[in-house]
Amino acid sequence: MLKRRRFKQQLTLQDRLSAWVKQVKEDAARLPPGPERDALLKKARQAELANHLQDWVKSAGLQPPK
Question: What domain of life is recorded for the organism (predicted)?
């Protein structure tokens, strides 16, 4: 049976997503207006939303359902 290779991440998912968003926005800024640039910006917005939702889920003010 094959063993699965494990990799311990050095950065949290939020940190990696933030770095990726920054890189994608820089890449999009170099592209001329068009569908490719729009697609990159859309992916960046989705990743920012995922980070925001993660912050909301981890917040102390979030209460479990009763």
Answer: Bacteria
